[in-house]
Amino acid sequence: MKSTRKNVRISVSVFGVLGIVAFTGHTAMFAADPVIHAAWQDGGAPELNVDYLVSTTYPASVEYPDVELITGSLTWQIWSTDTDNPDNIGDIGNITSPYPQNFGVEIERPGEIAGAREVKGINLDPQGEGSDANYSNLTGGGISGNLSGDLVLQWSDTQQGGVASLTIDGDAVGDIDVPVVSSVTISGDAMGTIKGTVLYPSLTIGGNRQGNVTICNVLSVTVGESNVG
Prior knowledge:
Blueprint: E1 8-12, E2 16-19, E3 25-28, E4 34-40, E5 52-55, E6 66-69, E7 73-82, E8 92-96, E9 103-107, E10 114-116, E11 119-124, E12 136-143, E13 151-153, E14 163-168, E15 176-177, E16 180-186, E17 194-205, E18 213-218, E19 226-228
Parallel strand pairs: 6-8, 7-9, 8-11, 9-12, 10-12, 11-13, 12-14, 13-15, 14-16, 15-17, 16-17, 17-18
Antiparallel strand pairs: 1-18, 1-19, 2-17, 3-4, 4-7, 5-6
């Protein structure tokens, strides 16, 4: 992310709110705990091994399958359920989109807020020739446990996309590096750094903040306990 604006460093502890006051899909089955589901919210069913991949081999595992998105779409919906208890949400490894396309992802089980119990990491950073023109969004949904790794989004060279909206009921263990912090709620601790270019409208940290929060353009700030400087 490129910006000529002066950075504002915001430290938030205990509880902080930054912001303006104010299917049908294909299922990838495995003979272990998680079942990975994928759909396009604007219709159609993405095809496994064509539009997306699911891997259980190292560095993924049967317990934490990785999801790699291939076909560009702004309406991806990803969620996980337990094989033995299909009414319960399951775990996901890393969610990635390493292709020169535009991607929008919602981690949400239909009819619910959360789409996974734990997610190892989210790296929606398009790669390859011409990928500077591409962008990615995290469009909503939630994780009922921890986001155990980093969250990375990209905006295009014309500053499109890069918008993060997500609810994490547990801890954010890794770093969060997104161009636009739109509506991000971390009910537990924020253990890594949080870096963005624009904050609009809200970032909520319900537990302890252990890393720095650095936003280049804070449109409005409302904080429970904080230092701004």
